[in-house]
Structure formats: C-alpha cells, structure tokens
Amino acid sequence: MNPDLDLALERVIRAPRAVVWNAWTDPSRLEKWWIPAPAVCRVDRLDVRPGGAFVTLMSEDGTGFVPQIDAIFLVVDEGERIVFTNAIDSAWRPADPAPVPMTAEITLGDHPDGTDYRIVVRHGDPEARARHEKLGFAEGWGTVAGQLAGFAESEASE
Predict the structure, then answer these.
(1) Angle CA 63–94–124, to nearest 5
(2) CA distance to 34, 92, 109, 139, 148, per residue, from 117 (Å)
(3) What is the pLDDT of residue 69?
(4) Which end of the chain has fewer beta carbons closer than 10 Å to its terminal beta carbon, N or C?
(5) In b/e form, how buried is each residue of 55-93, taking b as 16+ CB within 10 angstroms?
(6) Tell me: the pLDDT tens digits for 132-144?
(7) Closest C-alpha among 26, 3, 36, 1 to residue 145
(8) DSSP character string of the chain
(9) Which residues pair with 57 in a beta bridge?
(10) What is the C-alpha separation between 117 and 81, in angstroms, rounded?
C-alpha cells in the first residue's frame, strides 16, 4: 500500500470466509449491504470473473434507480480476493467516473473469530486520493463494511 495514493480499511467479520465471499459474489446478497442504508441497491450485472461486469444501481426511495457503479473485475481468486476498477466500464471502455477513478482490492483471510476483511482502494494520483478521503471514504466504505459484517454474521448464525 502506498499511503500517498491508497486508502485502506480492515475489520474482523465474525463469519466464515465462505459466507463473506458469497455475500460479495451473489447478486441477491450483495444488494442487501453494498450501498449505505437507507439507500437501496439493485444489481444490474455481477459477473464475478476477470473481465466480468460489476454494475449496480441505487435509489434513495426504493423506486427511482440511478447508476452507482459501472466497473469490471480484474482479479478473482475464489474465496480470497476480488479486485475491480471503475476506470474501465463494463463495456471495456476507458471511464472517468465520479467521484474518482479507483481500483479496489478486497482480501479475505482466516481469523480466529471469523474473517479478516481488508480493503485497499488505489488512486492514480494524490489529488484523487485526497478527494476520495474528503468525500467520506472512511465513513462510506466503513458503513458498507459494517453492513456486510451484519449481513454475513446474521447468515452465519442461521
């Protein structure tokens, strides 16, 4: 990780890695935690393989949906790592997405209490990193990681 270009977050999720992995790779599960509540997520495409599309929509009221992310998966290591970027859209065209182009790496590791969940979001320059941090990276991605933890822990206890 380069502290001048990257932002990171980590937490322990008290659920097995397989449950966390499924929450990331199953559209019906991803919709339940991917966007900070009370906004609602709809998965348009989730093709979890290198080169596959990652497209979601969001709604503040649950009726009118607008684009949220249009990205592609770069790396998918089953049960361990997902890397995606919004700098290339799902049609494989260069993109300049708002608020910032980024590449996100999600890693899952074993932890005595469940899953070691780590996120590194890479930016192309210090200005993009600073903009993402100022716009609330820690709060937004932190909220979503908390929602993922709540969802996965609930599924694991069923």
Answers:
(1) 100
(2) 15, 28, 7, 16, 10
(3) 94
(4) C
(5) bbbbbeeeeebeebbbbbbbebeeeeebbbbbbbbbeee
(6) 999 999 999 999 9
(7) 36
(8) --TTTEEEEEEEESS-HHHHHHHHH-HHHHTTTSS-TTSEEEEEEE--STT-EEEEEEESSSSS-EEEEEEEEEEEETTTEEEEESSB-TTS-B---SS---EEEEEEEEETTEEEEEEEEE-SSHHHHHHHHHTTHHHHHHHHHHHHHHHHHHHHH-
(9) 42, 67
(10) 10
Over residues 34-86, the pLDDT tens digits come to 999 999 999 999 999 999 999 999 999 888 999 999 999 999 999 999 999 99
Report the alpha-carbon distance of residue 45 to residue 39 in Å, rounded: 19
Q: How many CB atoms lie within 10 A of CB 145?
A: 19
Contact indicator for 80, 107 with CB cutoff of 8 Å? yes
Q: Could you tell me which residues are beta bridge partners of residue 7?
A: 121
